């Protein structure tokens, strides 16, 4: 599974990072970014929750 954050939509709320800190991080621009090329299998469910929980639908599943 691969994910991407659309920085034009992200508002930097930090929810994704709080949920899956091994995958998402708030970067120097104040917006979320993805730290990994591929989501580890054991984190996929948490990442799906982050996708569903993002208030601006900024996270997309790239698979
Ligand atoms: S949950 Fe969505 S809006 Fe909030 S920081 Fe993550 S990508 Fe950005």
């Amino acid at each position: 599974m691969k994910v991407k954050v659309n920085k034009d939509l992200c508002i930097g709320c930090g929810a994704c990072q709080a949920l899956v800190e091994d995958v998402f991080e708030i970067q120097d621009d104040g917006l979320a970014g993805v730290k990994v090329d591929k989501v580890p299998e054991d984190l996929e469910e948490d990442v799906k929750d982050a996708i569903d929980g993002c208030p601006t639908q900024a996270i997309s599943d790239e698979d």
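The helical segments are 15-19, 44-53. The chain has a mean pLDDT of 98.
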